[in-house]
Amino acid sequence: MRRKIIAGAVATTLLVGVGGAASAAPKSKKPKAPKPHEVIVALPEGSATPNIANGVSVGAHVATYTASGTGPAAANTAAPAGTPERYIDFPGGKLPPGVTITEAQGINALKQVSANLEAVGLTPRDVISMRVYLANPPGSDSADFNGWNRAYRQFYANTDLTTGKPMEVPLGSAAPAEPMYVNPARPSRVALEVENLPVQGWLVEVEVVAAYPEK
Protein backbone atom coordinates (compact mmCIF):
# COMPACT_ATOMS: atom_id res chain seq x y z
CA MET A 1 0.00 0.00 0.00
CA ARG A 2 1.12 3.50 -0.79
CA ARG A 3 -0.02 6.32 1.42
CA LYS A 4 -0.42 9.58 -0.46
CA ILE A 5 -0.56 12.84 1.49
CA ILE A 6 -2.19 15.83 -0.21
CA ALA A 7 -1.91 19.27 1.40
CA GLY A 8 -5.02 21.05 0.19
CA ALA A 9 -7.05 20.29 -2.93
CA VAL A 10 -4.49 21.78 -5.35
CA ALA A 11 -1.01 21.40 -3.94
CA THR A 12 2.21 19.45 -4.02
CA THR A 13 1.52 15.78 -3.40
CA LEU A 14 3.74 13.90 -0.98
CA LEU A 15 4.11 10.15 -1.36
CA VAL A 16 5.15 8.16 1.68
CA GLY A 17 5.31 4.51 2.56
CA VAL A 18 3.82 3.66 5.91
CA GLY A 19 6.19 5.25 8.44
CA GLY A 20 8.47 6.63 5.71
CA ALA A 21 9.81 10.11 4.99
CA ALA A 22 7.94 12.26 2.51
CA SER A 23 9.22 13.13 -0.95
CA ALA A 24 7.85 15.69 -3.39
CA ALA A 25 5.84 14.59 -6.41
CA PRO A 26 4.34 16.62 -9.29
CA LYS A 27 1.52 19.03 -8.53
CA SER A 28 -2.00 17.69 -8.91
CA LYS A 29 -4.55 19.84 -10.74
CA LYS A 30 -7.58 18.23 -9.18
CA PRO A 31 -8.31 15.58 -6.58
CA LYS A 32 -8.36 12.02 -7.88
CA ALA A 33 -9.93 8.89 -6.49
CA PRO A 34 -7.45 6.53 -4.86
CA LYS A 35 -6.01 3.67 -6.84
CA PRO A 36 -7.08 0.18 -5.73
CA HIS A 37 -4.17 -0.26 -3.27
CA GLU A 38 -3.78 3.38 -2.25
CA VAL A 39 -4.73 5.49 0.76
CA ILE A 40 -4.95 9.25 0.16
CA VAL A 41 -4.66 11.48 3.22
CA ALA A 42 -5.84 15.05 2.56
CA LEU A 43 -4.18 17.54 4.91
CA PRO A 44 -4.82 21.23 5.63
CA GLU A 45 -2.74 23.44 3.39
CA GLY A 46 0.10 25.56 4.74
CA SER A 47 1.37 23.48 7.65
CA ALA A 48 4.11 20.86 7.89
CA THR A 49 2.87 19.75 11.32
CA PRO A 50 -0.94 19.44 11.10
CA ASN A 51 -2.79 17.69 13.91
CA ILE A 52 -5.31 15.70 11.86
CA ALA A 53 -6.29 15.06 8.26
CA ASN A 54 -9.16 16.79 6.50
CA GLY A 55 -10.19 13.33 5.37
CA VAL A 56 -8.92 10.01 4.06
CA SER A 57 -9.75 8.19 0.80
CA VAL A 58 -9.28 4.42 0.68
CA GLY A 59 -8.82 2.36 -2.49
CA ALA A 60 -11.10 -0.55 -3.23
CA HIS A 61 -8.46 -3.21 -2.48
CA VAL A 62 -7.10 -1.83 0.78
CA ALA A 63 -7.77 -4.17 3.69
CA THR A 64 -8.73 -2.38 6.90
CA TYR A 65 -9.12 -3.26 10.56
CA THR A 66 -11.68 -1.55 12.82
CA ALA A 67 -10.84 -1.68 16.50
CA SER A 68 -13.59 -1.58 19.07
CA GLY A 69 -13.79 1.30 21.51
CA THR A 70 -10.81 1.05 23.85
CA GLY A 71 -10.27 2.83 27.12
CA PRO A 72 -7.45 3.01 29.65
CA ALA A 73 -6.34 0.00 31.66
CA ALA A 74 -6.86 -0.07 35.43
CA ALA A 75 -3.14 0.34 36.12
CA ASN A 76 -3.30 2.18 39.45
CA THR A 77 -4.57 -0.52 41.76
CA ALA A 78 -3.99 1.70 44.80
CA ALA A 79 -6.90 3.93 43.72
CA PRO A 80 -10.48 2.83 44.44
CA ALA A 81 -12.22 0.89 41.68
CA GLY A 82 -14.49 3.03 39.53
CA THR A 83 -12.55 6.27 40.06
CA PRO A 84 -10.74 8.16 37.29
CA GLU A 85 -7.50 7.84 39.28
CA ARG A 86 -7.67 4.05 38.85
CA TYR A 87 -6.76 4.56 35.19
CA ILE A 88 -3.51 6.49 35.69
CA ASP A 89 -0.50 4.40 34.66
CA PHE A 90 2.29 6.75 35.71
CA PRO A 91 4.56 5.35 38.46
CA GLY A 92 2.83 5.32 41.82
CA GLY A 93 -0.35 6.67 40.22
CA LYS A 94 1.06 10.19 40.50
CA LEU A 95 0.47 12.73 37.75
CA PRO A 96 3.58 14.54 36.44
CA PRO A 97 3.49 18.35 36.76
CA GLY A 98 0.66 19.85 34.75
CA VAL A 99 -0.62 16.51 33.44
CA THR A 100 -4.41 16.33 33.73
CA ILE A 101 -6.37 13.19 34.51
CA THR A 102 -7.79 13.19 30.97
CA GLU A 103 -4.28 13.52 29.52
CA ALA A 104 -3.07 10.61 31.66
CA GLN A 105 -6.05 8.45 30.69
CA GLY A 106 -5.58 9.42 27.04
CA ILE A 107 -1.98 8.23 27.10
CA ASN A 108 -3.06 5.01 28.82
CA ALA A 109 -5.88 4.44 26.31
CA LEU A 110 -3.61 5.03 23.31
CA LYS A 111 -1.17 2.46 24.70
CA GLN A 112 -4.06 -0.03 24.81
CA VAL A 113 -5.01 0.88 21.23
CA SER A 114 -1.39 0.22 20.20
CA ALA A 115 -1.51 -3.22 21.85
CA ASN A 116 -4.81 -3.97 20.09
CA LEU A 117 -3.26 -3.09 16.72
CA GLU A 118 -0.05 -5.00 17.34
CA ALA A 119 -2.06 -8.14 18.12
CA VAL A 120 -3.30 -8.15 14.50
CA GLY A 121 0.00 -7.18 12.89
CA LEU A 122 -0.56 -3.42 12.70
CA THR A 123 0.93 -0.35 14.39
CA PRO A 124 -0.31 3.18 15.16
CA ARG A 125 1.40 4.25 11.91
CA ASP A 126 -1.29 2.34 10.02
CA VAL A 127 -4.22 4.23 11.61
CA ILE A 128 -6.26 6.23 9.09
CA SER A 129 -9.32 7.22 11.14
CA MET A 130 -10.03 7.82 14.82
CA ARG A 131 -13.11 8.58 16.90
CA VAL A 132 -12.66 9.78 20.49
CA TYR A 133 -15.21 10.06 23.30
CA LEU A 134 -14.41 12.28 26.28
CA ALA A 135 -16.32 12.50 29.57
CA ASN A 136 -16.06 15.47 31.91
CA PRO A 137 -13.46 15.14 34.69
CA PRO A 138 -14.98 15.28 38.19
CA GLY A 139 -15.87 18.86 39.12
CA SER A 140 -15.62 20.11 35.53
CA ASP A 141 -18.43 21.35 33.31
CA SER A 142 -16.74 20.29 30.09
CA ALA A 143 -14.41 17.68 28.66
CA ASP A 144 -10.67 18.34 28.74
CA PHE A 145 -9.93 18.60 25.02
CA ASN A 146 -6.55 20.26 25.62
CA GLY A 147 -5.39 17.39 27.81
CA TRP A 148 -6.60 14.88 25.23
CA ASN A 149 -4.79 16.69 22.42
CA ARG A 150 -1.51 16.58 24.34
CA ALA A 151 -1.96 12.82 24.86
CA TYR A 152 -2.76 12.36 21.16
CA ARG A 153 0.41 14.13 20.04
CA GLN A 154 2.47 11.68 22.10
CA PHE A 155 1.42 8.92 19.67
CA TYR A 156 0.14 10.55 16.47
CA ALA A 157 0.90 13.45 14.13
CA ASN A 158 4.24 14.21 15.78
CA THR A 159 6.66 14.48 12.86
CA ASP A 160 7.41 17.35 10.53
CA LEU A 161 6.13 16.21 7.12
CA THR A 162 8.71 18.32 5.30
CA THR A 163 11.81 17.05 7.11
CA GLY A 164 10.50 13.73 8.44
CA LYS A 165 11.98 14.56 11.84
CA PRO A 166 10.13 14.10 15.15
CA MET A 167 8.49 17.15 16.70
CA GLU A 168 8.90 17.99 20.36
CA VAL A 169 5.58 17.75 22.16
CA PRO A 170 4.49 18.79 25.67
CA LEU A 171 3.60 16.47 28.54
CA GLY A 172 1.59 18.52 30.99
CA SER A 173 3.50 21.69 31.82
CA ALA A 174 6.93 20.18 31.10
CA ALA A 175 9.09 21.59 28.33
CA PRO A 176 8.33 19.95 24.96
CA ALA A 177 10.36 16.80 24.35
CA GLU A 178 10.48 13.86 21.91
CA PRO A 179 7.15 12.02 21.81
CA MET A 180 6.57 8.63 23.40
CA TYR A 181 5.94 7.07 19.97
CA VAL A 182 7.24 8.75 16.82
CA ASN A 183 4.50 8.59 14.21
CA PRO A 184 3.90 10.58 11.01
CA ALA A 185 0.29 9.34 10.64
CA ARG A 186 -2.40 12.02 10.54
CA PRO A 187 -5.71 10.15 10.76
CA SER A 188 -9.05 11.74 10.10
CA ARG A 189 -10.48 12.34 13.58
CA VAL A 190 -13.49 13.44 15.54
CA ALA A 191 -13.57 14.05 19.31
CA LEU A 192 -16.90 14.14 21.10
CA GLU A 193 -17.92 15.15 24.61
CA VAL A 194 -20.28 12.57 26.10
CA GLU A 195 -22.23 12.34 29.32
CA ASN A 196 -20.65 9.07 30.43
CA LEU A 197 -18.67 6.09 29.19
CA PRO A 198 -19.32 2.35 29.59
CA VAL A 199 -16.74 1.77 32.33
CA GLN A 200 -17.08 3.70 35.57
CA GLY A 201 -14.08 6.00 35.96
CA TRP A 202 -13.22 6.20 32.27
CA LEU A 203 -12.85 9.71 30.86
CA VAL A 204 -11.51 8.57 27.47
CA GLU A 205 -12.54 5.95 24.92
CA VAL A 206 -10.92 5.62 21.49
CA GLU A 207 -11.84 3.63 18.39
CA VAL A 208 -9.65 3.49 15.28
CA VAL A 209 -9.59 2.19 11.73
CA ALA A 210 -6.20 1.04 10.40
CA ALA A 211 -5.15 0.04 6.88
CA TYR A 212 -3.04 -3.03 6.28
CA PRO A 213 0.14 -2.29 4.28
CA GLU A 214 0.28 -3.96 0.90
CA LYS A 215 2.65 -6.95 0.92
Automatic annotation (TrEMBL):
<dbReference type="GO" id="GO:0019239">
    <property type="term" value="F:deaminase activity"/>
</dbReference>
<protein>
    <submittedName>
        <fullName>Endoribonuclease L-PSP</fullName>
    </submittedName>
</protein>
<dbReference type="GO" id="GO:0005829">
    <property type="term" value="C:cytosol"/>
</dbReference>
<dbReference type="InterPro" id="IPR006175">
    <property type="entry name" value="YjgF/YER057c/UK114"/>
</dbReference>
<keyword id="KW-0732">Signal</keyword>
<dbReference type="Pfam" id="PF01042">
    <property type="entry name" value="Ribonuc_L-PSP"/>
</dbReference>
<feature type="signal peptide">
    <location>
        <begin position="1"/>
        <end position="24"/>
    </location>
</feature>
<dbReference type="InterPro" id="IPR035959">
    <property type="entry name" value="RutC-like_sf"/>
</dbReference>
